[in-house]
Amino acid sequence: MTDSVAGISGMIIEKLLANPKVPRDINGNSKIVEDLAFDSLAVMNFVMEIEDELDVSVPLDKLADIRTINDLAACLHTLKASHT
C-alpha cells in the first residue's frame, strides 16, 4: 500500500482522519498548515509519526518545500525508493 505516492497519500489521510480535530473533507491537495490548521510543532510531530511508520527520515530542507498532503507523500515515496 505504501509503494506508490497515491498509497502513501491514502495512508497519510487515514492517519489524519483518526484525529477528530482534522476536517473530514481532506484530500491529497489539502494544505497541511492552512487546511488542517497544523502549527509547526504539529507538523513536525505528524511527520515524525509517518517517518517511523515508513522507516524513512525527511531532511529539514525538504520539509520546508512541503505544502500539501500529496507533496509529503511524493517526498516520502522518493525517500523510501532511495532507502531500499
Keywords:
84 residues, mainly alpha, 56% helix, globular
Structure notes:
The protein has helices at 5-17, 40-54, 60-63, 69-83. By secondary structure, it is mainly alpha-helical. The radius of gyration is 12 Å and the shape is globular.
Short précis:
By secondary structure, the protein is mainly α. The chain has helices at about 5-15, 40-55, 60-65, 70-84.
Content of β-strand = under 5%
Task: Give Rg in angstroms.
Answer: 12 Å
Q: Characterize the overall form.
A: globular
Structural class: mainly alpha
Order of helices and strands: HHHH
Taking the alpha carbons of the first and last residues, their distance comes to 16 Å
Mean pLDDT: 92
The tally of helices reads 4
Spans with pLDDT under 50 lasting ≥5 residues? none
Main beta-sheet strand count, sense and barrel state: none
Number of E-state strands: 0
Fraction of residues in H or I helices? 55-70%
